[in-house]
Amino acid sequence: MSFSIEGKTAIITGAATGIGHAIARHFVDEGANVVFSDMNEKRLKSGCDDLADLPNCRLFAGDLREKLNVANLLSTALDAFDRVDILINATRSFAVTDPLDPTDTSVETLLDHNLNVALRTSQAVARRMILQAEQEDTKPQVAGAIINISSIAAHRTQPELLGFSISNAALEQMTRSLAVSLAPQAIRVNAIAVGSLMSGTLRDTIAEHPEYREAIIAGTPLHRIGTASEVAELAQFLASSASAFMTGQIVTLDGGRSVLDTVQRPAH
């Protein structure tokens, strides 16, 4: 059993900041060739300024809602490293939804950002992984690994998060469907459903509402807030041969928050 991803080539979307950035940097440190992709070119270059001269790093700025940019992203990886072994769909957009406002377009927007981008990118990369496997002398045990970053919001009911919850639930169903569809080609597809992580967005929220931090901790059995580096380490496991017999799974990383019933029986 090996957790090594050294020499593998990974495309990581949403890599300018947050979870995507943490995963991409971790993969670079572990010896993988990494294409950092993000739609915000300025933020991407700023966050990766110290990586620009590394031979195992490339940057790609483009809006993956446009099909041409998906093709250009794949070409960037192939031009630099000749192949793609790992795709991590970490592009994540968040917005509050008014569930009773028919003019609110956040559901459509979040489905486009959080689901459709991952689907189109997965389809393009999977076709390349299949081609690479066909060119091998013997059929590989694993031809590629696709990992989607989801949220426990997919399984929790918060009306103001309608669009975010729906898009993540759809992403998890996409994960299962693609896992079955791509299994004959030895491509594994899994997802990581994350709880509250200490990110820039959460820091801003806590700065404005300090009580929110205590509420999260109180609702998390492990009594702390997670880190993006913990997601990166789990992503490495799912990308490595250590998880070679694992596909179609939604792995939850939330400190136990999603299994806690917050309505407790009264004490006797």
Q: What does this 3D model show about the protein?
A:
- GO terms for molecular function: oxidoreductase activity.
- Keywords: Oxidoreductase.
- This is Oxidoreductase.
- This protein has 268 residues and is α/β, with parallel strands linked by helices.
- The protein has a single domain, classed as Rossmann fold (3-Layer(aba) Sandwich).
- The protein contains 8 helices and 7 strands.
- The protein has helices spanning 18-29, 41-47, 67-81, 106-134, 162-182, 200-208, 211-218, 228-239; strands at residues 9-12, 33-38, 57-61, 86-89, 144-151, 187-194, 250-253.
- A 7-stranded parallel sheet has the order 3-2-1-4-5-6-7, sandwiched between helices.
- β2 (33-38), α2 (41-47) and β3 (57-61) form a beta-alpha-beta unit.
- The longest helix has 29 residues, at 106-134.
- The mean pLDDT is 94.
- Which strand-content bin applies to the residues? 5-15%
Order of helices and strands: EHEHEHEHEHEHHHE
Please identify the top-level CATH class: Alpha Beta
Distance from N terminus to C terminus (CA atoms, Å) equals 49 Å
Q: Outline, from the CA principal axes?
A: globular
Number of helices: 8
CATH superfamily: NAD(P)-binding Rossmann-like Domain
Which stretches of 5+ consecutive residues score pLDDT under 50? none
**Class based on secondary structure composition and strand pairing:** alpha/beta
- Overall number of domains: 1
Oligomer: single chain
Largest sheet: 7 strands, parallel
What is the averaged pLDDT score? Answer: 94
